[in-house]
């Protein structure tokens, strides 16, 4: 739809020309300049760089991934420098995060340490680590995108706009749904905190009650003041975004890799069971190898974020399930609690399934290779098949575990086991 | 003037063409209707054992359709060409009505469970209703794909080595019928026992009349909301029967499909067994490899279609075994109750085990040819044999539960181990539910 609208616009301009400008054709180039959005700007070339542009731009608003030129047409215009404003913002945020983290550590160490009470500590330290990793990822990002672009250029291209647009649409959909849900969750958390603050009011000022509740680690050490409260709230919003964004980043990279494999698979499916020349197979094998190399490069780049995201999700699901045994003080709490629990479980499931789809798609060419007729079975096809069977192509968590569909069940089993043990030590806390 | 004439001519020409087209369409439709009728009539003439999976499974599908599952037309047709799925047929509407009724029942069950405390035992009706609801939705979806799948299946069957005798031809149908009748009659027996145990040995009569009291207990989720009425009680009982059938049918269907798939592999292996020790030409090996590949492709297609049902079947079986084992600690109020309880527990475990064994047989049968390939004499070990051996050793051919787990024999021990683990933990939280102590139950 969007692709056609500007095209129509320029057509109309041209149609009006004979009436408006008469035979004087000198105005034609000027009018072309006036319609400043041309069709080419709306055409997709199906590259990953183009698809993640808006996602990275959103992340930059929240002090992550400070790279310049993310919305540019070509990845060669990506730049990273320590002197850019966005990099400085990112460093500033990290410094404030560090202060907040040390305050949290102080508060946690002063109280008793239990499975439940170290929750803010784990939350904040994870976010600090992810921020640091994202900064180093941003340094590699221009190189990574160039590599990605070169490999994409070499792949068999899709013919229609619909097919080219599919990956970008999926990525945007994931980003939008994830952000909307996390926004809703944050709003609900504010509502329930306000409700709770009104319930047990320490002071007369309701706003002060709210901030003392949400940023208890700051006001445990320092006295209450409005700018400090604002700083704490801002920190809180940013942390929540980054907490969701690390899962979304893993999902987006895996969607990108899986769709590159799918692009190759669609081409192989087109020629399934037909007599193809040996050159065709050797070309496809090299393309497959390129994507595998890309996959391992991306895995090296993001595997730290992956492992943090997975362990974080595992810990939080355990904690939330354990807390579900508590009696809820109000309806607002109940709604917030179950919404956040289901959001957490759904997000974890989505990350695991999207990440596993890379492995699934990478195994698919084997099925097409099995159907190669006898006459076109050549050393290249044999090599291709052997490579697929012997390789393990998947994203991983620092190579400790590979992200496949089997992992989902083992993680679920682990959660149930831990939960059953934790329940035995659980005592109901009155909030 | 002339262009008016031309446009008139063109219009007339168009009308003629349209008429021709309509006549052609009508003739085609008539032919198709006739062909379907022939396919239908042929059923009554031929015997059912033509060795195809479609013919073998048709009686089971007919029974399932009586209970509102698998609304696909032409299951009793002589060939798979008679199968079709349409949205506006009474079967589909019946199936949709069934799904609607179950979802209402599920809502009432959730309402009922939320009023008590939520724990392992009280969510039982929710899990029961929910799994059947999801499965019947999956069956509706499967019915949509069923004609295509059966056509593909028949194409694979047609190219396999022919049957040697009528006994072999009958084998598949006989196995399917015997497994289906054993499982269905056992489930009927279980259901009757449950009725007998609760009607004749009423422990806490909720109403004066034992039948009314039974109906009240069966559809307690309705009478939690509405006052007691007889017709609602009977409606609840009808739903209960439909649900119980659906619950058993999930497992039965999975078993039957895997019997069919492993039968295809057995046919290929049987031929290979006779010829493997002789040096065969390359052409033979190409034939074997392509046939094996077509069967494996069919297995993958079937797996995509039924893996959702498989997942539900395994998940609900594990849950119910855990639950029943937990309940076995309770004291039984009467002998009849004890008989019913242990029968149903044994039936449940036996059914789950047979699902596991039958489904994992597909994996076993798919590995069989590899053993035979090792017997090929050196003179006959051609490149095609090598390719087939490579494929067999590296591929993992099995049915799966949404691809989260592959069903092989190894799964059996893993599932048993996790059941024991959960059971040991659950026992610690268990309090004896004195089901004969009516006052305790009411409090």
What does this structure look like?
The complex is a heterodimer of chains A (431) and B (443). By secondary structure, chain A is mainly α. Chain A has helices at residues 5-20, 27-34, 39-42, 48-61, 85-110, 119-154, 161-199, 206-214, 216-219, 226-270, 278-323, 331-370, 379-390, 405-424; strands spanning 396-397, 401-402. In chain A, strands 1-2 form a two-stranded antiparallel sheet. In chain A, strand 1 and strand 2 (401-402) form a beta hairpin. By secondary structure, chain B is an all-alpha fold. Chain B has one domain (52-429). Helices cover 76% and strands 1% of the residues of chain B. In chain B, strands 1-2 form a two-stranded antiparallel sheet. In chain B, helix 8 (230-275) runs antiparallel to helix 9 (282-327). Chain B is globular, with a radius of gyration of 28 Å. Chain B starts with a helix and ends with a helix. At the A-B interface, helix 12, helix 13 and helix 14 of A face helix 9, helix 11 and helix 12 of B.
Helicity level of chain A, as a percent range?
over 70%
Total helix count of chain B?
13
Strand content of chain A: under 5%
Strand order of the largest sheet of chain A: 1-2
Overall geometry of chain B comes to globular
Largest sheet of chain A: 2 strands, antiparallel
Series of secondary-structure elements of chain B, N-terminal to C-terminal: HHHHHHHHHHHEEHH
Taking all Cα atoms into account, the compactness measure Rg of chain A is: 26 Å
Order of helices and strands of chain A: HHHHHHHHHHHHHEEH
**Span between N and C termini of chain A?**
52 Å
Protein name (chain B): Gustatory receptor
Organism (chain B): Drosophila navojoa
Family (chain B): Belongs to the insect chemoreceptor superfamily. Gustatory receptor (GR) family. Gr5a subfamily.
GO molecular function, one term (chain B): sweet taste receptor activity
């Amino acid at each position: 739809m969007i692709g056609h609208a500007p095209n129509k616009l320029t057509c109309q301009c041209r149609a009006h020309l004979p009436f408006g400008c008469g035979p004087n054709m000198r105005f034609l180039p000027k009018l072309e300049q006036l319609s400043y959005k041309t069709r080419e700007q709306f055409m997709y070339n199906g590259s990953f760089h183009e698809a993640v542009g808006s996602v990275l731009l959103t992340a930059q608003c929240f002090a992550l991934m400070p790279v310049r030129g993310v919305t540019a047409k070509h990845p060669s215009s990506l730049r990273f420098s320590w002197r850019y404003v966005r990099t400085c913002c990112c460093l500033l945020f990290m410094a404030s995060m560090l202060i907040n983290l040390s305050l949290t550590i102080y508060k946690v160490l002063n109280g008793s340490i239990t499975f439940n009470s170290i929750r803010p500590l784990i939350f904040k330290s994870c976010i600090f680590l992810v921020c640091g990793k994202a900064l180093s990822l941003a340094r590699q990002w221009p190189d990574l995108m160039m590599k990605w672009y070169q490999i994409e250029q070499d792949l068999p291209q899709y013919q229609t706009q619909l097919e080219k647009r599919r990956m970008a649409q999926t990525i945007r959909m994931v980003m939008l749904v994830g952000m909307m849900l996390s926004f809703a969750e944050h709003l609900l958390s504010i509502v329930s905190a306000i409700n709770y603050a009104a319930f047990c009011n320490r002071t007369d000022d309701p706003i002060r009650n709210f901030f003392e509740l949400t940023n208890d680690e700051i006001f445990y050490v320092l006295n209450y003041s409005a700018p400090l409260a604002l700083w704490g709230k801002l920190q809180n919003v940013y942390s929540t975004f980054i907490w969701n964004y690390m899962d979304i980043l893993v999902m987006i990279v895996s969607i990108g890799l899986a769709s590159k494999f799918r692009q190759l698979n669609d081409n192989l499916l087109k020629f399934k069971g037909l007599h193809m020349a040996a050159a065709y197979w050797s070309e496809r094998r090299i393309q497959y190898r390129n994507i595998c190399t890309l996959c391992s490069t991306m895995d090296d780049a993001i595997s730290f974020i992956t492992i943090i995201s997975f362990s974080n999700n595992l810990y939080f699901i355990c904690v939330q399930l354990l807390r579900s045994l508590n009696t809820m003080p109000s309806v607002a709490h109940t709604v917030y609690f179950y919404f956040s629990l289901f959001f957490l479980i759904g997000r974890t499931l989505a990350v695991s399934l999207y990440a596993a789809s890379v492995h699934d798609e990478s195994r698919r060419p084997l099925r097409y290779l099995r159907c190669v007729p006898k006459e076109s079975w050549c050393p290249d096809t044999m090599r291709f098949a052997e490579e697929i069977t012997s390789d393990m192509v998947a994203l991983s968590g620092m190579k400790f575990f590979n992200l496949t569909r089997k992992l989902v069940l083992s993680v679920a089993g682990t959660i149930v086991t831990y939960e059953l043990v934790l329940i035995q030590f659980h005592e109901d806390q009155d909030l | 003037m002339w262009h008016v004439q031309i446009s008139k001519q063109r219009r007339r020409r168009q009308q003629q063409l349209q008429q021709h087209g309509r006549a052609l369409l009508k003739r085609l439709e008539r032919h198709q209707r006739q062909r379907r009728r022939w396919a239908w009539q042929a059923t009554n003439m031929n015997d059912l054992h033509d060795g195809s999976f479609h013919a073998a499974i048709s009686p089971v599908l007919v029974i399932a359709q009586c209970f509102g599952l698998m609304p696909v037309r032409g299951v009793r047709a002589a060939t798979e060409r008679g199968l079709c799925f349409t949205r506006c047929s009474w079967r589909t509407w019946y199936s949709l009505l069934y799904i609607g009724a179950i979802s209402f029942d599920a809502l009432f069950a959730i309402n009922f469970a939320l009023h008590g405390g939520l724990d392992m035992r009280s969510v039982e009706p929710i899990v029961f209703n929910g799994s059947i609801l999801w499965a019947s939705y999956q069956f509706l979806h499967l019915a949509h794909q069923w004609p295509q799948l059966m056509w593909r299946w028949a194409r694979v069957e047609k190219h396999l080595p022919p049957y040697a005798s009528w006994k072999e031809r009958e084998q598949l149908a006989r196995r399917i019928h015997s497994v289906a009748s054993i499982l269905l009659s056992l489930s009927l027996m279980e259901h009757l026992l449950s009725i007998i145990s609760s009607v004749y040995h009423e422990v806490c009569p909720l109403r004066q009349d034992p039948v009314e009291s039974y109906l009240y207990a069966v559809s307690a989720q309705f009478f939690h909301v509405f006052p007691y009425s007889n017709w609602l009680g009977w409606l609840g009982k009808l739903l209960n029967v439909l649900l119980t059938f659906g619950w058993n049918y999930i497992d039965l269907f999975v078993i039957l499909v895997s019997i069919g798939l492993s039968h295809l592999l057995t046919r290929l292996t049987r031929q290979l067994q006779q010829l493997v020790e002789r040096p065969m030409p390359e052409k033979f090996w190409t034939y074997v490899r392509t046939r094996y590949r077509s069967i494996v492709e069919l297995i993958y297609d079937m797996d995509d279609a039924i893996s959702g049902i498989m997942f539900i079947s395994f998940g609900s079986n594990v849950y119910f075994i855990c639950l029943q084992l937990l309940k076995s600690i309770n004291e039984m109020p009467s002998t009849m109750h004890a008989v019913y309880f242990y029968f149903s527990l044994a039936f449940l475990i036996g059914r789950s085990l047979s699902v596991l064994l039958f489904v994992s047989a597909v994996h076993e049968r798919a590995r069989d040819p590899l053993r035979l390939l090792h017997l090929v004499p050196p003179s006959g070990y051609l490149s095609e044999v090598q390719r087939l051996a490579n494929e067999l050793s590296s591929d993992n051919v099995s049915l799966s539960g949404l691809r989260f787990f592959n069903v092989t024999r190894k799964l059996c021990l893993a599932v048993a181990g996790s059941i024991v683990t959960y059971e040991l933990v659950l026992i610690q939280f268990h309090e004896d539910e004195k089901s004969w102590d009516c006052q305790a139950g009411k409090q």
